[in-house]
Amino acid sequence: MALPLNLQPDEASPDWLSKGDNAWQLTAATLVGMQSVPGLVILYGSIVKKKWAVNSAFMALYAFAAVLVCWVGWGYQMSFGDQLFPFLGRPNVAMDQAFLLKRTFSGFLPNATMIYFQFVFAAITLILIAGALLGRMNFHAWMLFVPLWLTFSYTITCYSIFYPNGWLYKMGLIDYSGGYVIHLSSGVAGFTAAYWVGPRATNDRERFPPNNILLMLAGAGLLWMGWSGFNGGDPYMVSTDASLAVLNTHVCTATSLLTWLLLDIAFFGKPSVIGATQGMITGLVCITPAAGVVQGWAAIIMGMMSGSIPWYTMMVLHKKIGILKQVDDTMAVFHTHAVAGSLGGILAGFFAHPKLCRIFYLTDKWEHYIGLAYGLQSGHVGAGFKQMGIQFLGVAFVVTVNVIITSIICLFLRLFIPLRLNDDELQVGDDAIHGEEAYALWGDGEKYDGSKHNSVYGMEEFPMNAPKAEA
């Protein structure tokens, strides 16, 4: 078949393009996208009270769509474009055809693939923040919060840590797949935003049972399986390191879930399904900054720690520390993401294997990327302690940026719009906010109204307990 006159043979498949890498990267990005839509949409919509199911699910769905428009409009270039500051790129549109078809900054991929892959990471970060705000945030305020936070907070940490020109990347910070950029950021930002938005209604805060635990598990399952793309896609190639990252991810997660489960049984006497789900999440989060740079035995140890330390902060310290008790963090994102994410980052600095780091970062600089454990073993003690120092510096940077910028955004927004729903809306929930309900089924405590519940046979009244017609 003849080529169109304006198309060169190498434009569709240039020499630098790896078809295998590109296929996997697009697949990995889609897996990460499915963690959000439908994964977290289902999880949020089912883990809350029935009256908040629609609102909670829709906060996630809206964020996914809004982030994409902002991402291609200016966010991607601010995160991975020409330097404006050592911690931020220059805003620019990322939809020019010539740019989209060029090779990206790392790997054998076109820019279009990298934009898509990095978008799903940005989107899930905002959706995780939403988890701290479920059950009371004004949806219109959320609509404005999403683009503002993406623009002024996410881009800074992303450029600094993920992009090769970022100052923390150059310093040698280990963040394999977003323990800092996604999870520590969302945990701190969610907790900070929850402080400014205020708590749920008193009756909701005291009792907030899931409306559907089976659906919650379905959403959690999508989250877990989607993490294969989350951590397996960050080498930007089909590599042995990607395979290791995927296996380590699932091993750590399973260990963390079981650890949390055993602690629940030991201290509370019952195996909690919600608790096991929390343990699953903390395992996924903890391994993320280290997934492809630690050995399997280290992933198991990290799973044990991610199933116990966040459990302790959530079940014990949360009741003793004033600021934790004061802030209404609906999904406990501070514990499951901020604590677990910082824990994973610090453990990455301890367990990172020099050889695996060189495979991932494609560098032979021995003074970078040496976990403290291997620094002690090989005699490079100074390099090991330096790596730990860099990891702690990364935690401090991400926490500071997110507390300050998230606070500024919330204070700015509340000048124009209430951050929290009013008391009447808090009591009603979905129907007051969206005019829709998740489960519009007759028999949910309401009296039968024949004018509303017509039968499929077109009869005006057909009571549910009416006798069946004789044949």
Automatic annotation (TrEMBL):
Subcellular location(s) of the protein: Cell membrane
Which Gene Ontology CC terms are recorded? plasma membrane
In what way does this protein cross or attach to the membrane? Multi-pass membrane protein
Q: Which Pfam families match?
A: Ammonium_transp
Q: Where is the Ammonium transporter AmtB-like domain?
A: 23-439
Q: Name one GO molecular function term.
A: ammonium channel activity
User: Does the keyword field hold Transmembrane helix?
Assistant: yes
Family assignment? Belongs to the ammonia transporter channel (TC 1.A.11.2) family.
Q: Tell me what this protein is called.
A: Ammonium transporter
Kindly state which keywords UniProt assigns to this record, in alphabetical order.
Ammonia transport, Membrane, Transmembrane, Transmembrane helix, Transport
- Classification via Gene3D superfamilies: Ammonium transporter AmtB like domains
Note whether Membrane occurs among the keywords: yes
Bilayer-spanning residue ranges:
23-45, 57-76, 115-134, 141-162, 177-198, 210-227, 281-312, 332-352, 392-417
What's the chief localization of this chain?
Answer: membrane
